[in-house]
Amino acid sequence: MTGTPPDGRPVRNLTLREQVLQHLREEILSSRLEPGAELNEVALATSLGVSRGPIREALGRLAAEGLVTITPRRGAIVTKLTKQEFIDAYQVREALESLATRVAVPRLTDEDRAELHRMSDDMRRCAEADDATAFFEINRRFHDKLVAASGNRRLFELHEQLLGQMGRLLQKSAQLRGGLGESAAAHERILEAVDAGDAERAAQLMAEHIEVPQRVLDAPEALDLFDEADPSSEIEKAS
Amino acid sequence: MTGTPPDGRPVRNLTLREQVLQHLREEILSSRLEPGAELNEVALATSLGVSRGPIREALGRLAAEGLVTITPRRGAIVTKLTKQEFIDAYQVREALESLATRVAVPRLTDEDRAELHRMSDDMRRCAEADDATAFFEINRRFHDKLVAASGNRRLFELHEQLLGQMGRLLQKSAQLRGGLGESAAAHERILEAVDAGDAERAAQLMAEHIEVPQRVLDAPEALDLFDEADPSSEIEKAS
DNA sequence: ATGGTGCTAACTGTCAACAATTGACAGCGA
DNA sequence: TCGCTGTCAATTGTTGACAGTTAGCACCAT
């Protein structure tokens, strides 16, 4: 009986496809591979020491997840959202997190609430220290925590996927929200409603909180986080 | 200059993977392949006259879409939602369609509204004729129409994917909603708010409309649309 | 110069064969 | 009878080779 090692699952017998998938996903999410980067199959294959089969399968999955954009017979690149796509995603995010908040509030334990407060306090500190990087990391955990607390697994997965697709743009766009302080305040207001057990109000506040950068993005093309070039062209991307 | 044929895209030069993907997706969505059905790679390959490569890639994509469940060295089956997963999906659907309605209302043209009314009337007729099949088809188009009218492409895709996963269960569960008449009435109430240009109210009504079967599903395990057997087991399903 | 044309190299799409794993079953022993 | 063990057929995982397509470039004609 050589029991399971300190691993999560039975015996850590990962398929090559799974390893490649995991690797590439991490590379993209961490922005080591930036949007628009070309993903050459043979280059990846030799680089990772596997054949093209597992690479292709992993790329296909990532395409279905939206992290990669495949154009048949041309190749794959790291997905680059247009401004419109980013706005669309933001809108969906608002709905998902609002739902999550509404569902999560009555389910939160005291420990959950305590942790949320801790994160909120940390964010406040980061805002005052003007440490944007740390702020965003905690911010992400704060939102993730609420979504997870909803107990809705599908919701959690969709949310994770959506935020993954939005990537770095999330941080860049959030910076024109009116400063970290305003954002920290929004979280505090949300937590107030959460503590009061007012799920509906918390959900509403969350929706408004997320809605802010949307409005900023909508009107002024001042920010060129996007380099729209060809509004034409047919791509696969998923379906 | 042999121009593009009456095709939608450049020259209709579909990849085998795409053809297989399309075929399998259709088979699943139409329930010709029912949940739990095993998807043997060699069987599919010989059946479709291609090698296993494209089959595997298509199955991988379908797994990422949630239509197929792959367990790493075991094989693929058509995804079978548990009761909890179905309830979760229903909850997400509520949020998505509520958002879609809120966004769509101010964007609707007169033609859009006319078509919605037409569908609503048709549903009313089907309800009175007790034609559930036709009712559900129109119902689906009604909801799709609203989501499409939101102009949010990501929202549309997620919605389509979600409803695809829910599959036949949607119809079965909707039948214990209180009859087709009640459902038709709900659509009529929504359209009232739509006509009045009251997006917020329409969104709220839509949320309530979708919420109904959720409550029915939640409490009584009376309906055994699901055959839960092993609440354990580790599966891949997507991530 | 300039616009079109035909090569060419690089890349993706597909296939068939090989390797590894799994689940089932027969057979053995208690 | 029951449980264990070893073998086997079936199925998935992976590979390397081949075929087809694409994009870029040099070249030629105008």
Architecture overview:
Two copies of one chain form a homodimer. Chain A has 239 residues and is mainly alpha-helical. Chain A has two domains: 16-78, Winged helix-like DNA-binding domain superfamily/Winged helix DNA-binding domain (Arc Repressor Mutant, subunit A); 83-218, GntR ligand-binding domain-like (Four Helix Bundle (Hemerythrin (Met), subunit A), Up-down Bundle), CATH 1.20.120. Helix content of chain A is 65%, strand content 4%. Chain A has a three-stranded antiparallel beta sheet. In chain A, a hairpin with a 3-residue loop joins strand 2 and strand 3 (75-78). In chain A, helix 4 (83-104) packs across helix 6. The longest helix of chain A is centred in the middle third of the chain and has 22 residues, at 83-104. Chain A starts with 15 loop residues before the first helix and ends in a 21-residue tail after the last helix. The model of chain A is unreliable at 1-9 and 230-239 (pLDDT under 50). The first copy, chain A, binds a DNA duplex (30 and 30 nucleotides) through residues 13, 15-17, 40-42, 50-54, 56, 72-75.
